[in-house]
Amino acid sequence: MSAPYAKLPRWADYGLIPLINLIVAFLVAGLVVLLVGENPFDAAVILIKGALGGGQNIAYTLYYATNFIFTGLAVAIAFHCSLFNIGGEGQAYVGGLGLSIVCLAFDGIFPWWINFPLAIVASALFGALWALIPAYLQAKRGSHIVITTIMFNFIAASLMVYLLVGPLKPFHSQAPQTRDFLPGGQLPKLGFIFEWMGMRVRTAPFNVSFLLALVASVFVWLLVWRTRFGYELRTMGFSADAARYAGINEARTIIITMMISGGLAGLMATNVIMGDQHHMALDFASGAGFVGIAVALMGRSHPFGIIPAAILFGMLYQGGADLSFEMPEISRDMIVIIQGLVILFAGALEHMFRPAIQAIFASLSPRSVGVEAKAGRGS
Amino acid sequence: MAEAAIELIGINKSFGAVRANRDIHLAVKKGTIHGIVGENGAGKSTLMSILYGFYQADSGEIRVNGKPTRIATPNDAIAAGIGMVHQHFMLVHNFTVVENVILGVEGEPLLRSSIAKARSELQRLEREYGLEVDPDAVIETLPVGLQQRVEILKALYRGAETLILDEPTGVLTPAEADHLFRILRQLKEQGKTVVLITHKLREIMAVTDNVSVMRQGTMVATRKTAETTVGELAELMVGRRVLLRVEKGEANPGDFKLVVEDLTVRDTRGVTMVDDVSFGVRAGEIVGIAGVAGNGQSELIEAIAGIRAAVSGSVLLDGKPIDVTGKADPGELRERGLAHVPEDRHHVGLVLAFEENENSILGYHDQQKYLNGAFLDIPAIRKDAEDKVIKYDIRPADIRLKTANFSGGNQQKIVLAREMEQDPDVLIVGQPTRGVDVGAIEFIHRRLIEMRDLGKAVLLVSVELDEIRSLSDRILVMFDGRIVGERGPDATEGELGLLMAGVEAKEAAE
User: Fold this and answer.
1) In the A/B pair of chains, how many CB contacts fall below 8 A?
2) d(Cα B323, Cα B300) in Å, to the nearest integer?
3) What average pLDDT does the segment B137-148 reach?
4) Yes or no, beta carbons of A379 and B166 under 8 Å apart
5) Beta partners for B287?
6) Which of B238, B265, B297 is the last residue of a domain?
7) What is the pLDDT of residue A2?
8) Which whole number is the average pLDDT over A120-136?
9) CB–CB of B353 and A238 under 8 A?
10) Neighbours of B148 (CB within 10 A)
11) Partners of residue B340 on adjacent β-strands
12) CA-to-CA distance for A205 and A135, rounded, in angstroms?
C-alpha cells in the first residue's frame, strides 16, 4: 500500500508532470537514434526545425494537429463516461464516406460555405452511426466496447475498400479513390495568416477545419462540464452504481456518448478530405484515430489539454517527415518508435514519476500540497 | 508491571499537512487485551498501519518485547510476531481454509507437504484455542464468523504473538461476537496479546483489560477498563459530553405511506435474497429493520428505491403502486416523494471524484431549479450547496472541495442534506452512521427524529442494534431474506439477537 495521493498544484499536475514525461520519452528516443548511428542532438534540431522552422512547417504541423484534436476529443469524451473508444479510426473513415456523398452530390451546385456545414453534419452523422452499433451492443448486451470498436475498424476498412474500388471509383480510373471534388467541395486554406506575418506557406493544407476543431473543443468542454447530459455522463464514468441510484439511464447515456464520440471522430474527414486531398482515398485516416488515444491520455481528457497534445503530435508527424528525409538512417518507422515512446511515457506510464514529484513537493512545502482531510485511510 | 509486548514511543505521521498521528505513546502489556477507541479519522487505523508496516512513521520508535524494531513492511511485522485481522477479510474466496492459511508462506514449489504441515498445525491451534474450522471448507461457503476465524488462524499460523483486530464485530451477530470474545479471552490465557480496535464502547467494556482513547491524531487517555465507564470513554473520544440515548417523544403515526406486499428479490446470481416480505411504514414513524449484514436488507431497500428489480410482489408509495418488478425509475420515485440514503455512500450515494456541490444535486439534477435549459445552472447549484453546508454543518464548509476529501461523517451529511432537503414523504435510510464519528451520529439521529416528527415515513436499515433500538418506533428483524419478527422499541438486545440469528425461525420450521 503506497502513501495516499496528495494533490499537486495544478501547474505541476498539468504542466510539470507531462513535461517530465516528455523529456524522458525524448531521452530514450535519443538513445534509439544513437543506436542507428545518428547524432541525437542533430536529429532533435532537424525534428524541431521541421515542425516549427517556417510558415510551411508550422502550417503542416497544425494541419496534422487538426486531425488529432478531433480524434483526441472523440476518445476523451468517451473516457469521461469510462468507455474506451478505440474505434476512432473506423468512425473517421466512415465519417469520410458521409462527407464524400455530400461533396460528390453538391460540389457543382453549392459554394463551399454551404457544403461545409452539410459536410459537417454528414461526417458527424456517419461517424456517430458507426459508433452506434458497438454502443448499442455495450449498453444492451454487455459486449465490451473495446472489442467491438476494434472490430468495427476492420469492418470499416473492408467496407471502404469495397466502395472505393467499386461504386465510388470513377469509371476508367485505376486509383482506389473518388473523383476529385470541384471547388464547391474544397475548403479555403488559412495559410494567409502566416503570410500576413511574413512567412511562406506554399501549398501547406492548413485550412478552416482547424477552426472547426477549436469550436469542437469548446463544445466538448461545455457539454461535459456545463450541461445536464455532461453531468450524467461524468457520473456514469465515475460510478455506474451512483448513476443507477441517481436515476440516470445507463443505456441511453452510453449510446449518446458514443455517438458524440463517433461524430467527433467523423469530423476529422473535413480536414483531410475537404481541406487537403479533395477526394476520398483509401486509408485516408492513416492512423489518426489511434493517435487520438495518446492525445486524449496526454491531454488528460480535457479539451484544453488535448489542443497542445495534438499540436505536439502534429510536430512529431511533420518534423518526423523532415527527419526521415534528411537522415536516411532514420526511417519513418523510427518516427513511429518516437511517437510510441511519447505515448508510453505520457500515457501508459503517466504516473511513474508522480510519487517522487509528490514527495519533493511535500518536503518543500506541505502547504502547497492540497491535503486529504481523511487522515486514517489505512488498511 | 508486566513486560510490554508492544511499545510505541513518540510516533508521528503526517499526510501532507494533516497530522494523522501526533506524538503517540502506547504500551500494550503482554497477555492482555488492549482496546483502542476513537472516532473515525482519529488516527487509529493509521497507527495500526504503522505498527503493521503499511506505513512508515515520520518519527518515533516501535519496540516489540522491549527491543527496538524496524517495521517497514507487513513481512517485518509478521517476523516480529505481529498479526493483523483486517476489517475486510483478505481471503481468496474460492480457496479452501488450508490453502488460505498457507497463502504466501507455502515454503516450496509443490504444495503437498506444506498443506500437510499446515493441516497438523491447524489441528494444534484448534486444540489450544478452540478455533474450530473445517480445513477443507471453501471460504465462500463459510459464514462470516468462520471466515474471521480463518483470518485469526492465518495470523497464528505465521507465529503471531500479538494480534491486531480492526473493527472485528462489524459483520457479526451478537452471538458470533460473543464467540469471538471467548476466543480472544482464550488467546489471552495462552499468553497472546490482543489489540482490539473498535468504535463500540460496550465491546471495550466487555472484553478488554485496558483501553486507550484517540482523538484527532493524539492519544488522549489510557485507562484500566475496570476503572472507567462508557460515558467517560465517549466523552474522551469526542472531547465533550455526548448524549448516548436519543431523546424523542411519542410517535404520532398517521396513514400508511409505504406498503410492501409479498416482495421477493433475487440477486444477480439468482439467489433469493428477499423472500416474500410484507410490511408497511406510516407517516410519522420510524420503522427499523434489524439484522446481520447480508440477510437481504440491502436488496430490500434497493428494490423499494427502484435500483434493483424485484421478482414479484408490489410496493405502494402513498397508495399508488411502484413498478418494482419492471423498470421503476429512481428519478421518478424521487419526484413522487421517495428519498433514499443508500447504504454505500462511497459508490452509490456519492461520486467521490465530484466537487461537493456537484454531489448535492445527484439524483435531483434534472429538477428545473438546477437547470437552465440543457445547461446546469451553476450559480443556483452552488447557492443551494452553500445553504445545505451551513444548515447541516458540513465541514470543511467548502463546496468546491472534492468529496473524497471530506470525512465519513461529513460525506454522510452531504447525502442526508441532499435527500432530506427535498422534503420527501418517505425516507429510506441505509446504515446512516456506518463509518461516521460519534459527534455526527448524534446530529444524524436528531435529524432522523425530526423527519419523523414532521410526519415523514422513515424506513431505517442498520446493522447497529443500538441505533435501531434507540430510533425505531417499530422493529422488524430480517433473517435469511424474511422478516422473522416484529418488536416494539423496548425489545431487549438478547431477544433481537436471537431473532437475528434465526433461532425462532428455525424452531418454528421444525
Assistant:
1) 143
2) 14
3) 86
4) yes
5) B459, B474
6) B238
7) 34
8) 97
9) yes
10) 24
11) B428
12) 34
Given a cut of 60, whether residue A377 has pLDDT beyond it is no
Tens-place pLDDT, residues A235-276: 999 999 999 999 999 999 999 999 999 999 999 999 999 999
Specify the residue for cell string 454487455. Answer: A142
B505 pLDDT more than 70: no
Residues 6+ apart with CB under 8 A from A230: A80, A222, A223, A224, B376
Give the residue numbers spanning the domain of B175.
Answer: 4-238
Co-location of B232 and B274 in the same domain: no
Indicate the residue of A234, A366, A375 with minimum beta-carbon distance to B41: A375
Mean pLDDT value across chain B: 88
Q: Is B445 helix (H, G, I), strand (E, B) or coil?
A: helix
**Length in residues, chain B:** 510
With a CB-CB cutoff of 8 Å, which residues 363-402 of chain B face chain A?
Answer: 363, 365-366, 371, 374-376, 378, 396
| Residues 6+ away with beta carbon under 8 Å from A239 | B347, B348, B351, B352
B40 vs A226: CB contact, 8 Å cut-off? no
Closest CA to A368 of A109, A122, A46, A6: A6
pLDDT of residue B243: 58
pLDDT in tens, B323-336: 888 878 898 999 99
Query: Confidence class of residue A369 from pLDDT cuts 50, 70 and 90?
Result: very low
Residue spans of alpha helices (H) in A287-331: 288-298, 303-326
| Domains contained in chain B, number | 2
* Residue whose cell numbers read 485469526: B152
- pLDDT at B278 exceeding the cut of 70: yes
Domains of chain A: 39-326 (1.10.3470)
ipTM entry: 0.81
β pairing state of B285-290 and B193-197: unpaired
Quick check: is B272 in a domain?
yes
Q: Are B343 and B350 in contact (CB under 8 A)?
A: no
**Do B9 and B97 fall into the same domain?**
yes
Could you say which residues from 225 to 254 on chain A have a Cβ atom under 8 Å away from some Cβ of chain B? 226-232, 234-235, 238-239, 241-242, 244-248
Q: Evaluate whether residue B19 is within a structural domain.
A: yes
> What is the CATH number for B221?
3.40.50.300
With CA atoms as reference, report the closest residue to B311 among B351, B271, B348: B271
The pLDDT score that the predictor gives to residue A368 is 45
Q: How far is residue A121's CA from residue A102's CA, in Å, rounded to a whole number?
A: 10
CB contact under 8 A, A231 and B365: yes
Looking at residue B388, its pLDDT comes to 95
pLDDT at A336 (0 to 100): 81
Q: Per the domain annotation, does B397 fall within a domain? A: no
Q: Are A345 and A21 in contact (CB under 8 A)?
A: yes
Give the 3-state secondary structure of residue B86: coil
Of B404, B391, B257, which Cα lies nearest the Cα of B318? B257
Specify the range with the lowest mean pLDDT, choosing from A57-71, A363-377, B428-442. A363-377
Is 90 exceeded by the pLDDT of residue B236? no
Question: Is the CB of residue B11 less than 8 Å from the CB of residue B23?
Answer: yes
H-helix or E-strand containing B224?
Answer: strand B218-224
Bridge partner residues of B231 (DSSP) = none
Q: Give the integer Cα–Cα distance in Å for B4 and B26.
A: 10
Give the domain-ending residue among B238, B265, B285: B238
Nearest to B46 among A362, A373, A376 (CB): A376
Helix (H, G, I), strand (E, B) or coil at B68: strand
- What's the gap between Cα B263 and its chain centre? 26
pLDDT 10s digits, B306-321: 999 999 999 999 999 9
pLDDT at A378 over 60: no
Please answer whether residues A250 and A139 qualify as being in contact, where contact means their C-beta atoms are separated by less than 8 angstroms.
yes
Checking if the pLDDT of B277 tops 90, the result is: yes
Q: Order across the sheet with B320-322: list the strands.
A: B272-282, B256-266, B312-317, B320-322
Q: For A203-233, what is each residue's pLDDT tens digit?
A: 889 999 999 999 999 999 999 999 999 999 9
